[in-house]
Amino acid sequence: MSVQPNVAQLYDRVKSVILPAEWSLFTPDIEAIHRLKRERNAVILAHNYQTPEIFHGVADIVGDSLALAREAMKSDADVIVLAGVHFMAETAKLLNPSRIVLTPDPAAGCSLAASITAQDVRLLRQRWPGVPIVAYVNTSAAVKAESDICCTSGNARKIVESLGVPKVIMLPDEYLAQNIAKETEVEIIAWAGHCEVHERFTPDDIRRLRLSHPGIVVLAHPECPPDVVAEADFAGSTAAMAEYVTRERPNRVVLMTECSMSDNIAALHPELDFVRPCNLCPHMKRITLPKIRRALETLRHEVTIDPAVAAAARRSVERMLEVR
User: Fold this and answer.
1) SS3 sequence, 124-185?
2) CATH 3.40.50.10800 fits 198-275, yes or no
3) Each residue of 216-245: pLDDT tens digit?
4) pTM tops 0.85
5) 113-193: which CATH topology?
6) If one looks up domain 7-109+284-298 in CATH, what number appears?
7) How many Å apart are CA 239 and CA 247, to the nearest integer?
8) pLDDT for 1
């Protein structure tokens, strides 16, 4: 059984990004969540876009979609709470079908996941028979079930090239598909879905940042438009951006991605100057400490997936995880 963490020590991790008065408001929920985790034999998985009090205060496993998918398979907890959007909770359930998987707020959706349906995928197969379909993990279980294999922003090129074919369909993020197409000789047919956070960044945003902050290093997520990625100094998944900051330690840096990502990395590197253009994901921000606490107290909002859909979707996710 794990030991109740010292809340003051937890605050040391985030004191550069959370004011003491804010932390005092978070403390009761943080203490209750750690107690409930022990009582329920529960684990909390938190995406990089979660706020610092969740990411550093109560999460057991943190990372991007690929990391959470892999770590969910290793968990021996009876209960998994996914602090992220709904498709992530579905993916955790796919890989842990015998465990209780909870989402603190079932309304925490995703513009990418909402941009395509299983019927759309079936129509794509009719239009391009025999062309493999690569589904970004930012999709529903029903869409994953109709696809051949999944990918994340961190492994998309590797997945596309692992299929050994001249042409693939990649969905639903048009910009991710276009950015990957520039890195590979495989022809990529894209779906016109966009992330409502990343699509709002522009090359002019980066140019203005360079003018106002000389020497700034710009990191961009590959869900950004290709002209934004072209203006950046580095492009990669949330995990790749975090690794870049740790490895290169730029004196001043900006992350063209969701706000909380900068906060969480800044908490680990308070000596670095993080400039925040700050586009918030309204869906990620639906996840809060009180909602995580209620999920553990009541075991409400359990994720369930039709067994036939789950079996097919699980194959797509497992095929992705088999690619090294």
Assistant:
1) HHHHCCCCCEEEECCCCHHHHHHCCEEECCCCHHHHHHHCCCCEEEEECEHHHHHHHHCCCC
2) yes
3) 999 999 999 999 999 999 999 999 999 999
4) yes
5) Rossmann fold (3.40.50)
6) 3.40.50.10800
7) 12
8) 45
